Amino acid sequence: QVQLVESGGGLVQPGGSLRLSCVASGTTFRFFDMQWFRQAPGKEREFVARIRSSAGFATYGESVKGRFIVSRDRTTNTMYLQMNSLKAEDTAMYYCNADSYWGQGTQVTVSS
Predict the structure, then answer these.
(1) Contact (Cβ atoms closer than 8 angstroms) between residue 95 and residue 36
(2) What does the angle CA 94 – CA 100 – CA 105 come to, to the nearest 5 degrees?
(3) Which of 19, 46, 77, 94 is the Cys-Cys partner for 24 at CB 3.0 to 4.6 Å?
(4) At 25, phi and psi to the nearest 5?
């Protein structure tokens, strides 16, 4: 069974940091590009970051460039999202995606 499981969300103050994880199982995810998306209440799902299957080349959404870093560990089939300098507008449910597979999401709330 193919599964993506996110973790690491929580409540953090503005300016703080969090690291999200996405563990993939059930298939050979090293061949897939992997992505992070987020969705805030009442808003459309937004692209956050992508890391390619080869060479680890990364791209970012405009709203997170310079603050977030995506990485992956092929040995553990895990993708990470290091989020720094968090803002209130980063509050959302964060989802992991690979091909047609989605995780259940992890909530990030940025508030003082």
Answers:
(1) yes
(2) 20
(3) 77
(4) -150, 160
